[in-house]
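Quick one, T. Sequence first:
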Amino acid sequence: MSQIAGVLLFEPQAASPALADYILPELQQVPWDRCDTWSPGQIALAQLAFDVSAEDGWDRQPLLDPESGCCLVFDGRLDNRADLHRRLQIDKPLAGLPDSYLVLAAWKHWGRDAPAQLLGDFCFAVWHPERQTLFLARDPLGVRPLYYSLTDRHFAFASQAKGLYRLPGVDLRVDERWVADFLTLTHSDREITIHQGIRRLPGGHWMQLDTSGADHQIERYWRLAAPAGGIPRTARECSQHFRGLLTEAVACRMRGAGPVASLLSGGLDSSTVTALAYPQAMAADRPMHAFSSVLPEGHTGPEQDERWYIEAFLAKYPAVRWTPLSDDGGDPLTGIEKIVEILGQPCRDAFHRRFQVLLDGVRETGARTLLTGFGGDHFASRRVTGTSVRLLLQLRWRSLVGQYRREKKRGLVAGPLAFGRSGLLKPLLRDTAFHRGLAKAGAAPREQEPLLALSRTLGRRVGVHRRLRGNSHSLSRHPLRNAVACEESVALSGSLAQAMEYFASLGYAWGIRIEMPLLDCRIIQAVAAYPLEAREFGTWNRLLMRQGAKGLLPPRIRLRQDKSPFWPDVASRLRQRLNAEDLEASILDGAADVEKYVDRATLRAAIRDVSEGTAARGGIHQIAAISSAAQLAIFLRQAEQRSGSSWG
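Structure tokens:
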């Protein structure tokens, strides 16, 4: 794991002062083992290394190729090392080669097509001295972050957006489109950031530019396609195939020595990942740690504590060293200033304090990798919208009749007419009604209004209804779209990109590589190609995970249908923190321009509902609105302080 950065000046002068004085001081605020730079003139490249795998210890970057003079900086993990070694006919033993060596060899051999030949999570940049070009690329989903700025005088990139804050000429004004996306809890754009002058290279894309900066290209190289070699057709075969892919994905992310850490929530996804990691850790004689965020002892409230499920898992895997963690009385605003400063922007997560406590616990074990079940709800465990409609369009009458019989047997429909209304007409009309609701005053439908702390004026100015309508995640729910198009729209959603970069940035700060095996491209491609019956059986959802976890998990976990929310507990803790007036003042006062973006009446109503205990659904909508507004205000205050103390 590492952070990378670089500066390309469009004038023939030394670039190293810009890199050393402006970018590296921001990036060096996190743990790192080595920091090296390369600066022959207009171009400067740097890497801050944090060793995780054995190969990382041999890695020395920036990596210079003595024959061509090309220089590379790389962050990530390659999963097809042996395949690349064979195809590139490298005569050196694979065991002694770092991933960066293979990436540079692949780029020299395939050029722009090299990213498509790499399997894993990565981002890299290569300087070609003869062509005087800089080439950058990110993995298909964009797990490893990469931000850049382009001005009249320079091009710069870094693994964190805050690495570009001090560079002269970078426009740090707030991008209102990003703010609107953030406050409506959606992100329809994968390129924009909260700053107008800082962009991210989207996942699955490469970028190339020359020393003038005038000729720069950004192209997409990855599209979701069915895997080669065929796909199993029965539900049983698909679940076995899926389990094999997930086992391999977990193994790839366990490269390295030392303890193994896993997030164990008691849910289906995290429990499956932990169960697959367990035998591999035991075989390598590595300690296996599991961490769970639980409610405090003696807690009383509407939440269901997950300890019951976790204890069932631990009874099956007794060698797991389990650590229960509570958020030590914190609320959504505890420690939020630190998180916003680390990320360089607000983020969607309202459970900051719980995650900080979790990462502190992982770091104490000495583990440098944390396995999580994140991503299951996006693909393998995601409920298929409009299954009956899809079966009808595929003319699969027998399966459609079976779907009706199963729903009638469970008492979900009274007869064929009710099945037609709920299973066929409703999914088809849902998006139409959704989009019609968006047109009202530039806002979301009525049932989503509690999520919005967005100023109506700003909503109309940026066209928030159009942005919500074009959100990739909402498009993925349309039953008329084929499976591959749906999975691809989720993979390319801005919301998923934001979540992955959130994990990467926190990992940098705590010195922990946060891994998400369920977001492996091999799994996503296979899931998109599986038949509907392999993913959902009548109304029995998450079938792939349930069938694939047979023999791995106790039945109480494998067959559970509920999910324990922490929202009511968070709401009760927030009520104890401040009274309604103080909380509103702490968010809105002292931050310039915050009321340009946040609707005070909506925020006041959310605070009132939480403080009086009248919030519906445990306060999930209200807490989200309060947390989003608070983070935005904190960010604006921090931005004011930076502008007053830096080059401005």
